[in-house]
Known about the structure:
Layout: H1 18-50, E1 54-60, H2 67-78, H3 80-85, H4 87-110, H5 134-142, H6 145-158, E2 183-186, H7 190-198, H8 205-234, H9 236-244, H10 260-263, H11 272-277, E3 280-283, E4 286-291, E5 301-307, E6 320-326, H12 332-343, E7 352-358, H13 360-368, H14 387-405, E8 412-416, H15 420-438
Parallel strand pairs: 1-5, 1-6, 2-3, 6-7, 7-8
Antiparallel strand pairs: 4-5
Helix pairs in contact: 4-6, 4-7, 6-8, 12-14
Guanosine-5'-triphosphate binds next to α2, β3 and α13.
Organism: Roridomyces roridus
InterPro entries: Gprotein_alpha_su (IPR001019), GproteinA_insert (IPR011025), P-loop_NTPase (IPR027417)
Keywords: GTP-binding, Magnesium, Metal-binding, Nucleotide-binding, Transducer
Amino acid sequence: MLPRRNVWPPPPTPPTSESEKLARLEAEREAKRVSNAIDDALAAEREQRKRPSNAKILLLGQAESGKSTILKNFQLYFAPKAFHTETEAWRPVIHLNLVRSVNFILGLLEIRHPSTYSGARPRKPSTPDNALSGQLRRLSISLAPLRQVEESLSNRIAGSRPIEEYTDSSEADRYHPAKASEISLRSGAGWTAFLRFRHGGSTSFDRTEKADSEDLQNRRILSACAGDIMTLWAAPEVQRGLKDREITLEEQSGFFLDEVQRICKEDYVPTSDDILRARVHTIGPEEHVIYMESAHETMRSWTVTSQRVAWAQFFDDVHVIIFLAPISGMCLADSLKLWRTICCNKLLISVQFILFLNKVDILTRKIKAGIRFADHVTSFRNKPNEPKEVIKYLSDAFATINQTYSPRKRKMHRHDTKATAVVIDDIREVILLNALSATNML
Ligand SMILES: Nc1nc2c(ncn2[C@@H]2O[C@H](COP(=O)(O)OP(=O)(O)OP(=O)(O)O)[C@@H](O)[C@H]2O)c(=O)[nH]1
Ligand SMILES: [Mg+2]
């Protein structure tokens, strides 16, 4: 029989050699692998489509309770690629946190009447303010360009000089002694506010070029100042001056003075940990949609809104409320009060609650340093002064409020800060179950 012509695809020509035969087999295997991968991806997409599209989560907590931090943790965990594309945008924030700490110290040294600092009266200043050593005087001159860097970074991040603190013209009021490095940012702008920095804040090529050259200049100044910043921070006079005024910068949010060498390098790229530690005080509610990057994730996205408590009743359509209660500080009574407000709210009757006892590491450190919890919360009485006991005591206190004040019996899920991944896994479970039942899929 004559061979058939005009057949497509043409029949493979018989192998002419063993190596060609092997190459053809390998090519067929590869084609099969690609085809299977496409089938798998399509199947996963079909599966994804069947799933509820979005879980609505409300993060509630007072100022500095850790709302933005947990939001960043969610992003890092569920959408790591998107999180890492924002890395560059965090660099000016981290630099500004650092520069503000330095400028705060310089301001502190120059101030002749420390009582103008609200709440930072020295008990007995060991260095007269007008008797700076030669070394500090030299440092305050060599680090003077950091004022300019602070202005420039603030402009780029907040679009103008940061809000409240800068309204007073006095240099001393520029920084809050308890929040020296903090930057305030209006939400709405939210994360995108400092994305503007990346994109130059304008489509104009000139503006972008100007922004880039300013950015480069700031990084050069920081790099040139690194050694002097470290000398300043290590100077006994500085440490003594801060101690006299009862200011512990290393315990404040956005503290980066222990990482100067790395952070001031011209080619510095923030790590995930740096980003989690960067401090921005959010003004107003913040909303962020997290698109799950893993095909195995059950939900397609989470819409996470972070809020202080007052407006919670306007969010009765959320699936889950995560309430953040930092247990390390003096604001415990406030947290318990806010929790009660949420529990007794009739509009939130069908919303599930997850209680997140936060900042356990700080509590543990304080207890190890000899602080007695019962001295601050007398009802703790003579229970063992151990972090575990304190956590259990507080967790029970929150649970009792929920039982007592909820209009209807409501199961509550409790967590303290374990490994983030474990907590997120648990939270995911609750969110998933609740979102599925809300969409009548269970
Ligand atoms: N040590 C410790 N610090 C934490 C923890 N959670 C949050 N922080 C820090 O606490 C500071 C405040 O956290 P944020 O997430 O900015 O708090 P927030 O609730 O968004 O604060 P506002 O925007 O001011 O309302 C940040 O510097 C965090 O790094 C924690 O579990 N342990
Ligand atoms: Mg915040």
